[in-house]
Fold this protein.
Amino acid sequence: MLRGLAVLACAVALVPATAAAAQQYYFVVLPAGRPLVLHVRPAGPVVARLRQTTDFGTTRVLAVVAHRGSWFAVASEELGNGRVGWVDLRKPGAQVGVIHRAIRVSLSRRRLDLLVFGKLTRSYRIAIGAAASPTPVGRFAVAEKLDGAAFGAAYGCCILGLTAHQPHPPATWGPGNYLVAIHGGSGFGAAATAGCLHLREQALRYLFRQVPLGTPVFISA
């Protein structure tokens, strides 16, 4: 299992939404030795309590979607698609970092783009979810960086697990909570997967090196 995290700044003050600020994204690292409490809304009911590592053993990094004063809305794989949890950054121990990278996916174009400082640096042909098991659209984040060999040769070298859930898994999978990922495979340029995004091996290795945990992933139709 591979783990990766680069905290580029701590206790960052969010800046106005200028053109320069739009090229950077924020993430939250959990405090050591204590769970992070997520609320439905600022000062609202508790929706989840998160450990410092995910179920896969990855260091937990939460992408920031919005903020209101000291309250940050974060994406988490424990929450459903389109849902966020709010965390109060006045609580001691949590750190805030900055990422200057983002992944943009167009399902209609069958393309995955890597943006660095808001500029397109790489664009790859991908396979997307089939009609019966479509890739969900929305804003998500990279939540896992895993060794593909630990899960089977079909996944390629590595897996970028996302916070996205697959609400329509193949019937043969049975009930369960399935997460969408970027990994190796086949069918590039086609809608042929169970919801995950397939990427060629060389591109997958490059992407795995370039994007840290917490990187935002924007998937559009």
Summary: Residues 21-99 form a domain with the SH3 type barrels. fold (CATH 2.30.30.40). The CA atoms of residues 53 and 172 lie 30 Å apart. The longest helix spans residues 201-210.
